[in-house]
Structures are given as C-alpha cells and as structure tokens.
Design brief:
With 117 residues, the protein is of the alpha+beta class. 17% of the residues lie in helices and 38% in strands.
Length: 117
C-alpha cells in the first residue's frame, strides 16, 4: 500500500508566530492558503512548510488535534483495502475520480488524513 508523501499537520494558536518559528528551524513556505489561484475562497488559516523532504502543515482553527497526513495517488483504493481489513473511517472519500480525502483514527484516536490532490 503506497501512502504517498507524508507530512505532519499541526494545530496552532497563532499562525504567523508558528510560521516564523519553523522558518528559524530552516523551513520555507511552499503553499499558502491565501493563494487565490490555487485555493479560491480560503482565508489565511493554514500554510505548508518544508525543510528538505520534511513537510509540516500549520493549521489555525481548522482541526482539533494534530494529525498525520499522507498524500496518496489513489485514496479510494486505499480506503477500500483498509475497509476490507476492518478499519473504520470517520470520513470517507466520495465516489468518483480526482481529488478526495478520507480520515481514520489510530487505536489512540490520533487522526490520520489521506488527502489525494
């Protein structure tokens, strides 16, 4: 099962302060939520940063908990495979083609987001 690119999605209280902190650790901004062409209708509530192969998403007011995020190329086939193994989802990907996401919880209730772009 190929889960794709991995990143950690962190819930933050002050997005600008967190962004500046991670910049000091050598991270650079790769995606802003307020890029009107890429994300129409979104406000400045999140940013994706990277340092080499490591990606960190900072999200203010969007999630209750930190989560693991994977970006597979086929979220629907992964969802089907996991459901066959008895894994329950708290959010399932919609049927069809193209971008979709699904969410599940590990045994300790840590959220895992499967987000196909």
């Amino acid at each position: 099962m190929e889960l794709g690119q991995f990143s950690v999605s962190l819930t933050v209280k002050d997005l600008p302060a967190s962004r500046e902190f991670y910049k000091k650790l050598g991270f650079s901004v790769v995606t802003l939520s307020h890029d009107p062409e890429a994300f129409p209708g979104y406000d400045e509530s999140w940013v994706i940063l990277e340092n080499g192969p490591v990606k960190v998403g900072l999200f203010q007011g969007m999630f209750d908990k930190n989560m693991l995020t994977f970006n597979p190329t086929d979220v629907r086939s992964i969802q089907a495979s996991l459901k066959e193994q008895g894994v329950a989802f708290i959010k399932e990907a919609e049927p069809g083609d193209g971008p979709a996401s699904a969410m599940l919880l590990d045994p300790d209730e840590n959220p895992i987001l499967l987000d196909q772009h």
